[in-house]
Amino acid sequence: MTNQDKIKHLYWRAGFGLSLSELENRKNWSISKAVQTLLAEAKNPSPISVNENISINYDDLPMDEQEMSPIVKKGIAARLQNVMWIERMANPQHSPLLERMSLFWHGHFACIAKSPKTAVQQLNVIRQHALGNFKDLVLAIAKDPAMIRFLNNQQNKKNSPNENFARELMELFTIGRGNYTENDIKEAARAFTGWTSNRLGEFVFRYRQHDYGQKTFMGKTGDLDGEDIIDIILEKPETAQFICTKIYRYFVNHEVDKNRVRQLANQFYNSNYNIEQIMQSIFQSDWFYEAQNIGTKIKSPVELVAGMMRSIEVQFQSPLALLFVQKALGQMLYKPPSVAGWAGGKQWIDNSTLMLRLNLVAYLFQEAELNFRVKDEFESQRRGRAQRKIQATVDLSKITRKMKNLSDSEIIDELVNLLLARPNFSKKEFIQTNSSSYSKEDFIKRAVLQIMSLPEYQLC
Known about the structure:
It contains 23 helices and six strands. By secondary structure, it is mainly alpha-helical.
């Protein structure tokens, strides 16, 4: 494997791929320099602000959705907050690692917020701690108004505890199943009584609703509160094991190497849960760049779209188009399917998404209207509401300028290096398919289209 291949792999797993100019600038970097640059760029994240005034052409909506009230239309505009986030992922001016880590934790601490304000507020909490200390992140999420409301902790009061948050804290957010008891859930719920939020979307501790009685949790007894519960959970090595397993599946390989994870978990635990340190260890390890870990991860819909936008400068004419694509492919930012988040892996591919994935770039190039059925939409909703149109433009001018003096074979090599993690097709047959009778610009366009329509492009 060449150094350029390693850089490309790193930026697909620690970001959303590279544009041609970015790859040219970094292809001779050492892995250490690339990782240190990624980490440095992710420092001091600026908060994202809520923008409810994104321009929308409501004529793009189906007829039965064009007569909505101003309040409903404002709600649609507010949901387009996720479009702004995808655009950040695709924008070289923003830290790719910060956006990638934020996307990972967004799925880990899966939550559907009641309003755009609380959704973005939670994302800012995640961004602040995405590469910091895991305890600080968990504690901040436990005090986050979106999570408090999503898991009903505002209903968790003395004498009538609600166990939802306490259960998910252990099962999904920290230590995992099999490492706690039902009684631990009950006692943890008591410890989090009174942790709520006000109408302004701020965390509030209501001491009159808190249970100050003795509690026994994971073998420890005392007047425990929520922070004590988190501390006790993090004292268990099983927590580091659970989190590192999830990190490994997401960033390295869906098939877990238990020995590698055990080593990572020991490091994570001994570092007092330093997230930056564990990610640096992964990205700078030799095994991260082994063949079995390259081109084996199915891109999530968000990774796929953000990667396209970054690599070939796709511009969607209406932000609604990005919403439609997300929904059709099965991943809407800020709207995970459940508190367990997105399963990932092979779950991204099914009969309703595969053909759209393979043909998406063709629709983008043709600036065509794409009518498709939204995944999981009921049959009764499909008439009128399920038809969605997507229009976009693709700017290949920068790629064309850099490649106009290359031979056809050299162009294919350059595009393959840019777009595919592990090419395994016949370049000779590919070139024959793209006859030299085309102009250089058309040849490059057709080559990009064919490469990005390959099944291999779905992998990183």
